[in-house]
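Feature request, filed as a ticket because there's no other form

It would be nice if the structure record came with a short human-readable summary line next to the tokens. Right now we just get the raw output. Example of a typical job, pasted below so the devs can see what we mean:
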Amino acid sequence: MARVLIIDDEEAILRVVGTGLRARGYDVDTATGGAAGLSRAVIDNPDVVVLDLGLPDLDGVEVCRRFRLWTEVPIVVLSAHGTEARKVEALDAGADDFVTKPFGMAELEARLRVALRHGARRAVAEEAPVLEVGPLRLDLARRSAELRGQPVELTAREFDLLAFLARHAGKVVTHRMVLEKVWGPGAGDETHYLRVYANRLRRKLEDDPNHPTLLRTSPGVGYQLVAPEDP
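Raw output as currently delivered:
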């Protein structure tokens, strides 16, 4: 079973979450501060990190940034700071998902399973010439796309956007992340471009805007390309 590192300064959270995850078969390590968590991660090499934002020594967002300097381990943020701006800040820093306190163990474990699955996919996607997300298949060398075996006609920019989302399948990527990676530095505030292209992609991917199955919107935050089996 996967190894989970929980970084939180609340002993009650460490005890409850640790006990709950161990009962579900996970190996669990804990740390009560950001610096200790980073050091523990180097030693224990966790498969996923559960990270509180309100730590006594380092802000959780800064901990995310430091993790991303050397590892792509999935990070699920667990915090009472559930504001949209705080979510965007954590995701921009490299977090994969965000669970707001109070929470249920069933929800947290579901998020961990998804984060682990997507982390495995991204590790393969970094070097893969072909990306597959559910029924969608992208050939990066030929710059071609297929949906359920049928070709999808994409412009160059649409392909670049879809490929970026596919490389990060399952992860909510913020508007700024997408714009800076696909449109280039300095484009981080041009969210109207992104809305237009996201709507074009939805039509070409046959997604119902009210019940999207592949390209999902996280209001005020960003977008997420998911396989249909993901919750």
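Something like this underneath would help us a lot:
The domain at 3-123 is CATH 3.40.50.2300 (Rossmann fold).
The first strand starts at residue 3 and ends at 7.
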